[in-house]
Amino acid sequence: MSALPRCIAIAGPTASGKTAAALAIAQRHPVEIISVDSALVYRGMDIGTAKPTAAELAAAPHHLINIRDPLQAYSAAEFVADAERLLAEIHARGRLPLLVGGTMLYFKALFDGIDPMPTADPAVRAVLEAEAAAVGWPAMHAQLAQVDPVTAARLQPLDSQRIQRALEVYRLSGQPLSSFHATKDIAARADRISATTLISLEPADRAWLHARIALRFEQMLAAGFLDEVVTLRARGDLYPDLPSMRCVGYRQAWEALDGTLPMAELCERGIYATRQLAKRQITWLRSMPQRQIVACDAPDALQQVLALVDDIA
Questions:
Q1: Which of 43, 96, 101, 288 matches a 20 to 30 Å C-alpha distance to 239?
Q2: How far is CA 73 from CA 18, 131, 172, 196, in A?
Q3: Rounded to whole angstroms, what are the CA distances from 263 to 107, 187, 257, 268, 271?
């Protein structure tokens, strides 16, 4: 694995203040922001992803935002390739790359490196879909647990998209999906991230984060989030199992518009799903021992982040 160029990373759960921190850093240092967010890549998904506003995007150069149509997928491997290219280009322009986001799989893939894995195979997928139609996705999940218990442990039995992909990779390569994401040699990994500073925004009081998540979801609904999903559905080519439509909030809104989720429960269910996402994000962060933690609920959290960046920028 080649070493990553010098860069700063701001990670944290949803609603922890990452965007505000990034924009404050951009006011003091010549940075370009690389989004580390699997939802911000999609065009037309603005309100439900809390995408930076036009003014915020204009405040500093941003990358990997609005680069995919919601019908398209975007993998961790594609992110790593794009991020490595951007890191080099930003350095060539004499600026400092600032990685910002909450998709921890992307951070892990970038920091650890990622082995090339098999691309999608329509024939294998068709076989898997036929098997699932016959026995159900929980049975397919049980099958996955036999060959890749690590991946199966982090997936829900009805997560058809990810179960299918994990089984597809195994059948094509003979290796579990988890082996492609496995942590590399410790020394090699240390060399790869030696010039990377990872600042992690983590709440000391989880209730503080929960309150922010609830407020944000309520504000999204007030800003027209449901209308945004109605517009996406009206295209006619999107469906709920797409990675884009499985993003937190969009999945619940789609179900509410379908009538499978009572509209009156949308806000509560959306907030709950977002809280679960934040919990998973914090768990991922705890597996990154190199991170420098800033309590995002501290009154001087932003000043702490800026002080860390000032010392190394």
A1: 101
A2: 24, 23, 19, 28
A3: 35, 52, 7, 10, 14
Which residues are 98's β-sheet partners? 8, 33
Query: What are the pLDDT digits (tens) for 154-185?
Result: 899 999 989 999 999 999 888 898 887 655 57
Q: Which tens digits make up the pLDDT trace of 56-101?
A: 999 999 999 999 999 998 988 899 999 999 999 999 999 999 999 9
Mean of pLDDT values over 235-244: 94
Do 298 and 209 form a contact (C-beta atoms < 8 A)? no
Contact 36, 103 (CB under 8 A): yes
Q: How far apart are CA 145 and CA 2, in angstroms?
A: 33
Q: Which two tokens stand for residue 168?
A: 């597809």
Over residues 110-133, the pLDDT tens digits come to 998 877 778 888 889 999 999 999
Whole-angstrom Cα distance, residue 44 to residue 13?
A: 23
Query: Which pair of structure tokens corresponds to residue 153?
Result: 């442990």
Reported pTM:
0.84
Q: Which amino acid is at 145?
A: A
The b-or-e profile of 116-129 (16+ CB within 10 A means b, else e) is ebbeeeeebeeebe
Q: Is 202 helix (H, G, I), strand (E, B) or coil?
A: strand
Compute φ and ψ for 165, nearest 5 degrees. -65, -40
Structure tokens at 103: 């998709």
Q: Which residue has the tokens 């979801």?
A: 217
What length does the chain have? 313
